[in-house]
């Protein structure tokens, strides 16, 4: 597989090598050692999620309090989405920046995002199915959202009329979330990730 850093620090695009023949195909969609070498520590696997969305559904931008935050490793097993990572870490050199990767069942790419980054996606097909691995379990009291249509973020969602959940439609803008003290601090995220690197060996089996 090939790992490519995105323009948002702490986010990576992963492109697997597919092996196909008349019977079908095989690929490694996740390798803890390769990811650990790139990010400096292995991804702790605490929860696996699956999400199915209709075309034009936009979900996000979701994030969690740091520490511990929630790192994610996402791939699309059916259909296609535009997967979006947003830097919500106050003080980060790329604060407010977003980057997007098309995830689909053709190239079968994946996206990794570190603790403190925001995540969202837009379904490009009906029954777009995402599966993602998470470093921590769901904690509703530590979960937050920023409005995905916030003009300050300027995310170019490929949906004529984006379909949002009631929660996402009521989410604050980036500026409102920052003023309310909801956003993670870049330094706190860096310190937390440093503790992961110090206590684990990315190649340790």
UniProtKB/TrEMBL annotation:
Superkingdom per UniProt: Bacteria
The protein's matches in Pfam families, at most eight in alphabetical order, are given as: dTDP_sugar_isom (PF00908)
SUPFAM superfamilies reported for this sequence: RmlC-like cupins
Please name the CDD domains in this protein's record. Answer: cupin_RmlC (cd00438)
Q: Which residues form a coiled coil?
A: none
Q: Which family does it belong to?
A: Belongs to the dTDP-4-dehydrorhamnose 3,5-epimerase family.
Protein name, per record = dTDP-4-dehydrorhamnose 3,5-epimerase
Source organism of the structure: Micromonospora andamanensis
Q: What is the lineage of its organism?
A: Bacteria, Bacillati, Actinomycetota, Actinomycetes, Micromonosporales
